[in-house]
Amino acid sequence: GSGSYTIKYDGVEVKSGGQFGSSETQTFGSACVTNPTPPPMTPPPTEPPTAQPTPVPTTASPTPAPTGCTGTEVVVGILTDNYPGETTWWVTDKCGSAGVIMSGGSYSGSNTLYKESLCATAGQYEFTINDSFGDGVCCGYGSG
Questions:
Q1: Which residues pair with 125 in a beta bridge?
Q2: In the chain, where do the E strands start and end?
Q3: SS3 content of the chain, % helix, strand, coil (to 5)
Q4: Each residue's pLDDT expressed in tens, for the chain with a length of 144 residues
């Protein structure tokens, strides 16, 4: 079997491959925001309201069904080669102090697709895949 990997960020494939030696790294995402500008302050009203508002009867509205990821989805797909126990990977947050936010491996199923996803905030991330034997994940047993 032929192994491979893919990384998707916000629905767009940013890297795929399988031919590498011991490891391969890919940075993806958007630039880090260092000092966001706070919203402008709204001045308080000058005079209080003159009359109390009329209460409106409330009815409980149904809870909406989950809509999936409302942030930026990171998806990693790993198709293992004939030696899945050699493969590990991780994704690190390059903007914050979160460190490793996703990881996988080593695996037990040869020629098996493993898929992981995470709803993250927009930012910059780094994906690293490692093959402990040093022959990548392509071409059945790897051929770097």
A1: 28, 93
A2: 4-9, 12-17, 23-29, 72-79, 87-93, 100-105, 113-120, 124-131
A3: 0, 40, 60
A4: 589 999 999 999 999 999 999 999 999 998 887 665 666 666 666 666 566 666 666 666 665 555 578 889 999 999 999 999 999 999 999 998 789 999 999 999 999 999 999 999 889 999 999 999 999 998 755 444
H-only helix segments in the chain: none
End-to-end, the C-alpha distance of the chain in Å comes to 15
CA distance 75 to 77: 7
Q: pTM value?
A: 0.72
Look up residue 59 and give its amino acid. T
In the structure encoding, which two tokens stand for residue 119, read together? 């709803």
- Per the listing, tokens 């990548």 go with 136
- Edge to edge, the sheet with strand 87-93 lists 23-29, 124-131, 87-93, 100-105
